[in-house]
Structure formats: C-alpha cells, structure tokens
From TrEMBL:
Family: Belongs to the GroES chaperonin family.
Keywords: Chaperone
Its job: Seems to function only as a co-chaperone, along with cpn60, and in certain cases is essential for the discharge of biologically active proteins from cpn60.
One Pfam family, short name: Cpn10
Species lineage: Eukaryota, Viridiplantae, Streptophyta, Embryophyta, Tracheophyta
Keyword field contains Chaperone: yes
Quaternary structure note: Forms stable complexes with CPN60 in the presence of ATP.
CDD domains for the chain: cpn10
Protein name: Protein groES
Amino acid sequence: MAKRLIPSFNRILVEKIIPPSKTNSGILLPEKTSKLNSGKVVAVGPGARDRDGKIIPVNLKEGDTVLLPEYGGTQVKLGEKEYHLYRDDDILGTLHD
C-alpha cells in the first residue's frame, strides 16, 4: 500500500519501528523502557533542486534504518498502516547492525 505514495523532492516516507512489548520467552516489558526512535525507509523522493535546477539526490535508500527526531514529520495513514514523511535534512542518522 505504501508503494502508491512517492514523496516529493527531498522527502522520505518512514514506517516507525515499534519495540516489542514482550521478550521471546514471554516476559512483558514495561512501557517505560528506553526506546530508540527509529524507523525503516519505505520510499524516497527524487531529491531537491539547486539554484541551477540540478537535482541533489537524497542520501538514503529504501530499506535503510534511520534515527528519527523526537518531534516533527507529517503523519500519513495509508490503509491500516501509519507512516511519517520527513525531509532529508530532518533525519538524524542511519543505524547499522
């Protein structure tokens, strides 16, 4: 469903990663556990244009795991899922395993 929305310019469509509420062994985790505000990039716009009209490509690609700011972005609901649109400049960094 998210493939229908292609972000404009330097915007990125992100699906937030929700931390698990219990472990594999069934132990329930409290809601106050420190959670990392992260998400997975679902779609990427073509990029912004500079003064000469040339496209400046976005640094991220689909499938990247990114660190998101605590506030900001535009909430978008497509079907049953909830996504967020951010500008390329708003993304704090990428997360690697």
